């Protein structure tokens, strides 16, 4: 039997790059079956949030006299080295320990096994695989919950239980399946697999010259990256990407929304897979309707860069440039038999039929054969599917996601904050230009937005 380490941590929060460990629990099982246990409170060097105190029972007072992680790092490393790292939601615990060791300049790598995934593989008939479900389902004995050693003991009990209920072959198959059949390119360091977190974020592929090849969002960075190298028969595009990728970086976010917004920003900045030469920005534009009187609404093309997209104004469609916008409007006019002249696409003498009337592609609103009001109604009906969502607030808004907040204004993404005092700095930096991809992301999450009441008091000196 291989040496094992059943591990559980208590922490100040969910983000390994920001939060810190408050308690470590390890159950060591040697190859000959000898079992040792270790539990250690850790001073995180930061305040423990009240809800974490309530959940774990670990208070700021309890860790006040505990050693910092740097004082127990060597002991933790000694107990983990050379062992299979087993934990429930293993990448959480593994990621926190890796980050703590990294802060001290200590490299830490270990083969990892997640008992959540193991339970799903061995007991697929069940839908819930959290630790409380395993306790109930398998009759595990919990000395306590949400304390590090007690939870590590539960994971060890689950390991013992599956070796009674399932065959060694089934268990080994489930273990091997967790990492899958990978075909990592030879130029990539295989140790990368141990580095990848199972958190949301954005991953970036670079070639040997440091140029970006691909940027992708993922709710699970590890799955997102490794999916590129698990194809039995990769497409030509995937095979080409695998041959070229030489380095992989990633940016962790608090959730899916943060990943999508970060991806849009990085794609706009780095332009993966495109020549790294100066490029003219897209002249994103949209149609608005101008009231010309007598029930005639005429489309007017405006650049989206500085528009407010407020509730007082309706906008239709987002186009890369004026050429695309006019082409789409012409196609709409032809399909709905709208008057190109009244749409501003062609010139004609007032009161006279346009060229389209004679070819029966216009119903005659230009020459009184159709009322202007009827023409306007048909235009509005045709544009309905292209109507943009109006910015629903008189000022900025915030989307809370995990322990972060995404600051927005007029469909612009201003940035992400962890503390409320960071908001004023982002607001003072001003709004970036309107971006079509960012709008498409945010329009799906209007229900999660909260209006932000911020009064700016800065005055020029």
Automatic annotation (TrEMBL):
Documented EC number(s): 2.7.7.7
Domain of life: Bacteria
GO aspect biological process, one term: DNA replication proofreading
Pfam family, one: RNase_T
GO molecular function, one term: 3'-5' exonuclease activity
CDD domains assigned to the protein according to its UniProt record, in alphabetical order: DEDDh, GIY-YIG_UvrC_Cho
Enzyme class: transferase
Catalytic activity: DNA(n) + a 2'-deoxyribonucleoside 5'-triphosphate = DNA(n+1) + diphosphate
GO cellular component, one term: cytosol
GIY-YIG domain span: 198-276
Subunit structure: DNA polymerase III contains a core (composed of alpha, epsilon and theta chains) that associates with a tau subunit. This core dimerizes to form the POLIII' complex. PolIII' associates with the gamma complex (composed of gamma, delta, delta', psi and chi chains) and with the beta chain to form the complete DNA polymerase III complex.
Role description: DNA polymerase III is a complex, multichain enzyme responsible for most of the replicative synthesis in bacteria. The epsilon subunit contain the editing function and is a proofreading 3'-5' exonuclease.
Name of the protein this chain belongs to: DNA-directed DNA polymerase
Organism ancestry: Bacteria, Pseudomonadati, Pseudomonadota, Betaproteobacteria, Rhodocyclales
């Amino acid at each position: 039997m291989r040496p094992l380490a059943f591990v559980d941590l208590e922490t100040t929060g969910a983000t390994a790059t920001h939060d810190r460990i408050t308690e470590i629990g390890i159950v060591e099982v040697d190859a000959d079956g000898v079992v040792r246990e270790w539990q250690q409170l850790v001073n995180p060097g930061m305040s423990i949030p009240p809800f974490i105190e309530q959940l774990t029972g670990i208070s700021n007072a309890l860790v006040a006299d505990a050693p910092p992680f740097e004082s127990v790092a060597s002991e933790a490393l000694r107990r983990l080295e050379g062992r299979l790292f087993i934990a429930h939601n293993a990448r959480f615990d593994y990621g926190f320990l890796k980050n703590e060791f990294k802060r001290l300049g200590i490299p830490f790598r270990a083969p990892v096994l997640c008992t959540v995934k193991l339970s799903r593989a061995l007991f697929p008939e069940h839908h819930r695989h959290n630790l409380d479900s395993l306790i109930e389902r398998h009759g595990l004995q919990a000395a306590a919950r949400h304390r590090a050693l007690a939870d590590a003991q539960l994971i060890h009990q689950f390991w013992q239980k599956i070796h009674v209920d399932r065959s060694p072959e089934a268990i080994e198959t489930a273990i091997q399946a967790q990492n899958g059949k990978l075909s990592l390119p030879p130029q990539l360091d295989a140790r990368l697999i141990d580095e990848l977190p199972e958190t949301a974020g954005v991953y970036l592929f670079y070639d040997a010259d440091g140029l970006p090849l691909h940027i992708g969002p993922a709710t699970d960075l590890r799955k997102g990256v490794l999916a590129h190298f698990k194809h039995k028969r990769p497409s030509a595009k995937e095979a080409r990407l695998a041959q070229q990728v030489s380095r992989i970086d990633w940016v962790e976010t608090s959730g899916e929304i943060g990943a999508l917004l970060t991806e849009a920003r990085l794609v706009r900045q780095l332009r993966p897979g495109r020549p790294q030469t100066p490029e003219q920005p897209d002249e994103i534009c949209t149609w608005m309707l101008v009231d010309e009187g007598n029930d005639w609404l005429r489309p007017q093309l405006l650049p989206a860069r500085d528009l407010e997209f407020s509730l007082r104004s309706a906008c239709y469609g987002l186009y890369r440039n004026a050429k695309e916008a006019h082409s789409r409007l012409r196609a709409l006019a032809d399909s709905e038999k709208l008057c190109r002249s009244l749409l501003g696409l062609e010139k004609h003498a007032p009161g006279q039929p346009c060229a389209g009337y004679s070819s029966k592609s216009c119903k005659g609103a230009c020459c009184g054969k159709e009322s202007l009001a009827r023409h306007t109604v048909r235009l509005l009906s045709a544009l309905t599917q292209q109507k943009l969502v109006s910015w629903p607030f008189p000022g900025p808004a915030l989307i809370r996601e995990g322990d972060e907040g995404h600051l927005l204004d007029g469909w612009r993404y201003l940035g992400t904050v962890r503390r409320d005092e960071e908001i004023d700095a982002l607001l003072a930096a001003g709004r970036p230009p309107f971006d079509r991809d960012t709008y498409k992301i945010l329009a799906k999450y209007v229900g999660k937005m909260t209006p932000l009441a911020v009064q700016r008091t800065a005055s020029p000196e």
